[in-house]
Automatic annotation (TrEMBL):
Keywords from the named record: Hydrolase, Metal-binding, tRNA processing, Zinc
Family according to the record: Belongs to the cytidine and deoxycytidylate deaminase family. ADAT2 subfamily.
Domain CMP/dCMP-type deaminase: 3-112
Cofactor remark: Binds 1 zinc ion per subunit.
GO MF annotation list: tRNA-specific adenosine-34 deaminase activity
Pfam families: dCMP_cyt_deam_1
Descriptive protein name: tRNA-specific adenosine deaminase
Highest taxon, organism lineage: Bacteria
Lineage: Bacteria, Pseudomonadati, Pseudomonadota, Gammaproteobacteria, Aeromonadales
Keyword Metal-binding: yes
Protein source organism: Zobellella iuensis
Cofactor(s) required, per the database record: Zn(2+)
Residues the record lists as binding Zn(2+): H54, C84, C87
Amino acid sequence: MNEQDEYWMRRAMTLAARAELEGEVPVGALVVLDGNCIGEGWNQSIGSHDATAHAEIMALRQAGQAIGNYRLLDCTLYVTLEPCMMCAGAMVHSRIRRLVYGAADAKTGAVDSVLRLLATPGLNHQVLWQPGVLAEACSTQLSRFFQRRRAEKKAARKQAAGQ
């Protein structure tokens, strides 16, 4: 882990906070090429009614538009949560050079936790990855969101039962 990885991960956490403000699971992502951010994304699945509107997909889409090519050679994708199968597959297809992620995802993580998709032999592209950058801070951001969400649901059930 280096200072640059931490810098970009903090920026991704800011995007995750934006997702949370919009009522989405707080995950943020960005694509960096030659020290410049060329794509940003945050979870938008709930608001857009689009299962593919994950932070990583949104950032990859914007980066492709920025350079006029879906092949994001020499790019690094930073994301606050370990990518799922869909997002890991999109990384292979976009041919990013490197993935850096924060918190592990024990339920749907497709890089190290549940599956090791990026390590699958025979893929047409290999993505390097660095897990655990600002993992505690990223994990805390997600945990607080889900704690708050559970408390809100509990309060709503209590209020409904009392009426």
